[in-house]
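Progress note, sequence design subtask.
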């Protein structure tokens, strides 16, 4: 009888230990920073960011439909100290390092920023795309596209065939936060 209690107690203890991992997820990071001082954050429906051009192909329209929403969290360097910038940068790096959920799609350096793009799902049917970027002159941030069976090649084609001048003013405003002056 005592062995039965010991085994049950060990089993419960093992469950508690394994369920209380201290790993931070991207979702918890987005939630925690959404109301944090100095951060710009938001969840945007794809229609508020991209409007297809009049002559857009059905592939472009399908790609837009496959993306449900975009989550963005950004901490501009003007709103933070060097220590806080480094803490947030390392926190995000830690989320993606050795993470089995996100696979690396690409990384690059551009205009003083380090940018890494990750995805979850199959490489030709992505459910989530994440861009993580940081630069000492700009700040640190992450943008996440959520959808169903997003095709990365079609996303690139879509970006070439959407209008951000008129109804994409929100996207232009967000690009301004990142100090990106180039019009899409």
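Output:
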């Amino acid at each position: 009888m005592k062995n039965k209690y010991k085994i049950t107690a060990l089993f419960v203890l093992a469950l508690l230990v394994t369920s209380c991992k201290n790993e931070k997820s991207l979702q918890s990071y987005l939630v925690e920073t959404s109301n944090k001082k100095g951060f710009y954050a938001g969840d945007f429906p794809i229609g508020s960011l991209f409007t297809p051009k009049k002559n857009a192909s059905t592939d472009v329209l399908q790609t837009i439909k496959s993306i449900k929403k975009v989550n963005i969290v950004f901490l501009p360097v003007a709103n933070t100290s060097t220590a806080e910038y480094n803490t947030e940068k390392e926190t995000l790096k830690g989320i993606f390092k050795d993470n089995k959920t996100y696979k690396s799609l690409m990384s690059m350096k551009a205009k003083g920023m380090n940018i890494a793009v990750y995805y979850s799902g199959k490489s030709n049917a992505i459910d989530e795309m994440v861009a993580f970027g940081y630069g000492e002159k700009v700040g640190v941030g992450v943008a996440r596209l959520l959808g169903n069976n997003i095709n990365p090649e079609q996303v690139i084609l879509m970006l070439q065939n959407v209008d951000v001048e008129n109804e994409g003013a929100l996207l232009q405003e967000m690009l301004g936060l990142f100090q990106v002056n180039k019009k899409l």
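The first strand starts at residue 40 and ends at 45. Work on this subtask will continue into the next period as scheduled.
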